[in-house]
Amino acid sequence: MTGSDIPSSFRLAYVPGVTPTKWVRVWHERLPDTPLELVQATAADAPGLLADGGADAGLVRLPVDRDVLAAIPLYTETTVVVIPKDHVATAAEEVSLAELADEIVLHPLDDVLDWETLPGRPAVERPATTADAIELVAAGVGVLLVPQSLARLHHRKDLTYRPVPETPESRVALSWPQADEAPDLVEEFIGIVRGRTVNSTRGRATAPQRPTAKAKEKAKGKRAGTGGGQGGARHKPAAGRKSSSGGRAGGQSGKRGKPRGR
After folding, report:
1. Taking every pair of C-alpha atoms in the chain, what is the biggest distance, in angstroms?
2. pLDDT band at residue 198, thresholds of 50, 70 and 90?
3. CATH architecture of 79-168
4. Residue 96 — left, alpha, or beta (φ > 0 → left; ψ -120 to 50 → alpha)?
5. In the chain, where are the structural domains located?
6. Which of 18, 155, 160, 201 could form a disulfide with 59 if both were Cys (CB 3.0 to 4.6 A apart)?
7. What is the DSSP string of 218-256?
8. What is the mean pLDDT of the chain?
9. H and E: helices and strands count for the chain
10. Close Cβ partners of 224 (under 8 Å, ≥ 6 residues apart)
């Protein structure tokens, strides 16, 4: 097997909370000869990994440096508060920021939410990771605000979560290194996440052909020929044949003679 016969691979980075399973499944169906390698990365490390060529594309959290990486936003996540199951806030479907004013709100070092001012009371020390913060919530030390996918990722039987409106939200995007044109395999994955069919043109619509002047004239002639007495060009009856008025065609096609005197 020569080097050109070896199928190229595609490396897809993804950050915690993002589940690429459905898109990976479609990839294997459409490109069975092109291996897809999943590369796990933290939200903070993923942009650098892409910029350095450690992956061909990645499912990352915005923002990213648009001078270095291209990005297509995919969806925005709901922000939730992770609380113990016996917390008083579990009685409501949603929790407002005002209701968290007296709570210790944990702020891990790997937090992915862009806070101007963190609600509630700060903890004595910031947990190193979201996983560490979850452990503290379970121990009754405080509460934690995270994107819903991270609450699901760190699910525990003794914890639950509730949506918190009017909070910063995390946006997930497909990103890859900036270039004049995305590589073919990146384009293939873009098509998959955007739901394009196998036979689509990768979003590059082909302009419909305009009829030429000759085709227009031909079509006009066809319409005129089928029009008959409906406004189309009339054809003269052949000589010697009866016209539709009952006279001879020949007498009607020439000049009329003077009327005979009585």
Report:
1. 131
2. confident
3. 3-Layer(aba) Sandwich (3.40)
4. beta
5. 10-76+171-194, 79-168
6. 18
7. HHHHHHHHHHTTTTSPPPPPPTTSB-TTSSBHHHHHSPP
8. 83
9. 7, 10
10. 232, 233
Q: How confident is the model at residue 18 (pLDDT cuts 50, 70, 90)?
A: very high
10-76+171-194: what fold?
D-Maltodextrin-Binding Protein; domain 2 (3.40.190)
Nearest to 143 by CA among 122, 166, 117, 167: 122
Helices marked H in 42-160: 46-51, 130-138, 148-153
Q: What angle do CA 39, 41, 42 make, to 5 degrees?
A: 165
Question: 19-45, pLDDT tens digit by residue?
Answer: 999 999 999 999 999 999 999 999 999
Distances (CA, A) of 10 to 37, 73, 230: 6, 20, 65
Omega before residue 211 within 30° of 0, cis: no
Position 10, amino acid: F
